[in-house]
């Protein structure tokens, strides 16, 4: 395992700037996620770290080594792709052995290490099988084994699960985390899938337009998003506009709410416009007199373990409210309801 550091990386493709002065430090042994909308630069950053792209400006360090000019195979990093990139006419064993043959490792040693790699991904005994006789999930395990067989210090994964069905994706989440941790690897994982990132990451970076919007552990990104972009990108949220009165009181068109700043020490001056983020699961439906906001139910989706309500407020704002284990199913209609949110669940966003 090895610390990975990107230092002021800019990458231009002609007149497209894919990365703008990105700096990141990924701790040794950490499973780190790069997340963000399409085209925000996740893959380009991963490829710069892997040595598959050369940054226009900036440096990449693995531990103390400046690897910016080194080819991929000299970085002790292995990459796993969404497409698996396996040779269909070869056996599982031949696919895995390829990297070692290129490195001129002795035959017996190759065989030993192929078996070891297959064991790590729980495919012992599959070496002689044709790759084309393996399921999608098994093929992704083979591509993981092929990455692990060269004993890398870093494992770089580019949307490795997006070609699998939902059930397999769930299983492979814990498998990949186990593999990274058991082998003391530093892992960087690119995905669109926020549930994948929230459930697997030690820390993650949310990227936006070639830059880093926020870095932190999943619970921090979810509970203390720095901006409305991050709040909206990770999980569902209600964003309300308001004006700061004094202290933490924010006046919205529908009433005054007391908020908690997302970033410690952030205290906007009275009169400034701000955005509040309120997660649907943080809102409780109560009597109108007990709510800090009031509205009317205008829609509902019943999902068994939970129910999602759309609640229309006076000024036309629609709030999403989720109730777990619903005992009462409320109907849309004219009855006023109150919405109660505790102060720590009303997040005052910096931007
Ligand atoms: P996605 O989630 O859609 O894969 P991404 O966040 O991984 O997106 P990148 O693939 O890194 O985004 O692309 C970032 C920007 O750089 C995009 O505008 C893309 O069109 C551009 N880009 C990436 N690779 C190249 C290339 N080889 N030539 C020209 N432009 C490129």
Task: Describe what this molecule looks like in 3D.
This protein has two domains: 4-223, P-loop containing nucleotide triphosphate hydrolases (Rossmann fold, 3-Layer(aba) Sandwich); 239-348, Nucleic acid-binding proteins (OB fold (Dihydrolipoamide Acetyltransferase, E2P)). Helix content is 24%, strand content 34%. It has eight helices and 21 strands. The chain has helices spanning 42-50, 92-102, 107-120, 136-148, 166-182, 194-200, 218-223, 228-233; strands at 4-13, 16-26, 31-36, 57-62, 65-66, 77-80, 154-158, 186-191, 203-208, 211-216, 238-244, 249-252, 255-258, 260-261, 273-278, 284-286, 293-302, 306-313, 318-324, 337-340, 346-349. The longest helix is centred in the middle third of the chain and has 17 residues, at 166-182. The radius of gyration is 24 Å and the shape is elongated. Residues 13, 16, 18, 36, 38-44, 192 line the site of adenosine-5'-triphosphate.
